[in-house]
Amino acid sequence: MIESIYVGMTGLSSFSRGLRVIANNTTNLNTPGFKGSSLRFADTFYSSGGYTGRQFGQMGYGVSTMGTSMSFKSGELRQTGNGLDLAIDGQGLFMLQGTDGSIRYTRAGQFRFNRDGVLVTQGSGAKVMGVGADGSPGEISIANLKTTAGKATAVAKFTGNLSSSGTDQTVSGVRVYDAAGGEHLLTVKLTNTNSTTAGSWKVELMDGSALVGTSQLVFQDGKPSAATSKLSFTYTPAGQAALPLTLDFSADVTSFASGTLSTLAFASQDGFAPAELSSASFDATGTLVLTYANGQTVKGSRLSLGRFDTTDAVGSAGGNEFEALDGSAWHSGVAGGAFGSVRSGYIEISNVDLSQEFSDLVIMQRGYQASSQVISTANEMLQELFSMKSR
What we know:
Radius of gyration: 38 Å
Largest sheet: 10 strands, antiparallel
Strand content: 35-45%
Number of strands: 31
Distance between the termini: 21 Å
Low-confidence stretches: none
Shape: rod-shaped
Mean pLDDT: 91
């Protein structure tokens, strides 16, 4: 009966550990990227009880635990709207570098740029690892990308119909940028010169009342001729260097009779002013995408992702991070294929199934009660034995 008490004690100890695992799972129900675990049970050794048969009379010595088994099934992806909240649709994990240089992994993609412009985790501040354009590994930084320089306008495009029966047309508000990013509004004046050449127009580029230059636009069958569809000028803004400027009428400009009504208008230009960074996010390939206030976008480094061959190679390190227990079972790469794709503006929530945890909780509780009942019964039998001596 003493042995029965010890056997019951192994049950109390094992089911207590099971309760602790369930408690850890349920308390991390709202922890981003958390992966639930389950406890492995195993029976302990056996003795023959003095019998010579291989199985006859074998007596067990209770139950033990063999550690936990982690479930890496994906949790639900929840939208946050924050471009630096990232989730992986697949089996990959984000790679982190701690202050001690160690490599960790996480599914909780809650990141931010620190004061040095380096992408780090919200919790531990570990650096998020990436791959540069040359394929070299390193940190992801926007230290030199917080502003973008302006670009001088090289081409201004036009669209619409220039009435072939009209005498003149003025297109104002032609916006261009100089080399310093300064904005200038120019005017294009077109005068019908059919009397000298059929379908021809005199084109004057004006900066206010100052003439920048003159050229000729010729239409053939209602379309600009190849030789005159793109007109070259040299524009010198006040206090700035000379700027080569092309007026492009080649794509969407026509000249058909429409009375005196013309719809010719300025469409677009390829310059822009300097601007500050307005937002940062990552695309599905894990590439950093920076958007500036002038509408320009720049792509940066790609996220480094890791994956493993077996869960036995993964250990929990706390802080929503995992460590490699067997480096040979781990692989690194970038988004795509076996590593999955990156979802910006989402986080992966815990994969804990609360209904399953509550079911397991009932089983653990019943197992604990049964083990305690075995101990109580063995104790009562011992008391009965001791009471026989006093009779």
